[in-house]
Amino acid sequence: MVDKIKNFLFDLKIWRSLKVRLFVIIFLIGLIPGIVVRAGIMQSYEDRAVAVRQSDVQNQLKIIANHLITYNYLPNPSSEVINAEIEQLANLYSGRVMIINGNLKVIKDTYGISEGKTIISSEVIKCMKGTGSARYDDNNGYIEITTPIVETVSEQMATETIPAGKELIRGVMLTSVSTDIITATMDALNRKALIITIIIIISLLALAILLANVLIRPFDRITNAIGEVKEGYTTDPISVPDYLETEHIVDAFNSLQSRMKILDDSRQEFVANVSHELKTPMTSVKVLADSLIAQQDAPAELYREFMVDIADEIERENKIINDLLALVKLDKAAAELNITGVNMNELTEIILKRLRPIARKNDVELLLVSTREIIAEVDEVKMSLILTNLIENAIKYNKKHGKVTVTLDADHQYFTIEVSDTGIGIPEDSMTRIYERFYRVDKSHSREIGGTGLGLAITRNAVLLHRGTIKVESKEGEGTTFLVKIPLTYLAV
Questions:
Q1: Domains of the chain, CATH where assigned
Q2: Distance between CA atoms of residues 377 and 487, nearest Å
Q3: Is 184 exposed, middle or buried (0-12, 13-18, 19+ CB in 10 A)?
Q4: pLDDT tens digits, one per residue of 42-58
Q5: Hey, is 408 helix, strand or coil?
Q6: Whole-model pTM?
Q7: What pLDDT is stored for residue 144 in this prediction?
Q8: Dist. CA 319–CA 311, nearest whole Å
Q9: Residues 65, 173 contacting (CB under 8 angstroms)
Q10: Residue 31, C-beta contacts closer than 8 angstroms, at least 6 positions apart
């Protein structure tokens, strides 16, 4: 049942409002202490009033108990003075007084209904043993008091067994005192307290509504500011420094907006670069074809030369398209990774064997350094892309008689691939842009070796899909080192 109520409240949209929750919290914080304090004050007043009334009555009863001994009332309950005192006490406190002798026989009852009867009560018997008591019955509205009637043995009455000064209990006064006046006062106080409580509740409602609106106002300003950005009225960062929480939200949104702007600029630049890169080979093909068409009697050797150039441009176009398709595939969810256990040492040797002809052509030495056998959970195809792109770049951007060193290592969590070359290096101002699509450090040299500017972007995406990292260190004119670090065990998110 409790779970159903919780689910029902959660499903209510109004309860999911922060403003409503703040209103409820503020209202309850004001109301609950007020109710507790009111109940405590009323209970304290009742306890105090009962204690005062009980003390007054007990003082009166002690006086009358002494008179009962003085006037020898217990053996002869005919004293008009004592009877008058007892009746006066009963009338004064709207109660009932019964005088009980040592034989537990009622010798006086102000109600006149129990005289001559024997009363057996635990309170009376305890009182006969010297333990008086007082009990408040709030349900029936009276205080019941038992008072011992004590006689002190005088020297004339003293005997060997009963020395002078000893107190003897001769009887008990059983008194019931009405608390109607206390109840009436409590009712009056409760009515006044109810009026005050209603006023406090109304005040709390107004205060809770006011505070809830004031406290939630910064969040409304955030919503409005985000709405203006969404509608395109402004691109400026928003600022709502009222609370630490709003600062955190605003900072997160501004960071997101800045990131989205970077992505949008990158997307526009990417589209422009793709258009340019795809258009350039097509333009070259068209120029070559138009040249052939314009020359009606061109020799066969010229046709062959132009057709070779056209084939090269088409091959370049094909490389760009293939790399773009590879990027599209890498941009998809990591769930499409085909994770298997791969021997990284064997895979690296295969890649190096495949690239050695290119290295020999460029007069570059390839060297593999492996400290231990490495078995990792990776996508073999994408890992081949990473190795191929890094090693091929190290070969193509190297110097004559240069060297490329591939180092494999691992610990208990990660394995690393370090590709180091002795090539031309990367300028410091280009280090942060080398992973951008179509970005080339040296455009003229890149075109000479046939690069598309997509290799490092593909490599970085493949590394990120494996939850890995890629870092680069380079010194212009001395060489470059790429360090890839990937978990040995793939953990899908």
A1: 245-330 (1.10.287.130), 334-487 (3.30.565.10)
A2: 8
A3: exposed
A4: 889 888 988 998 899 88
A5: strand
A6: 0.48
A7: 92
A8: 12
A9: yes
A10: 200, 201, 204
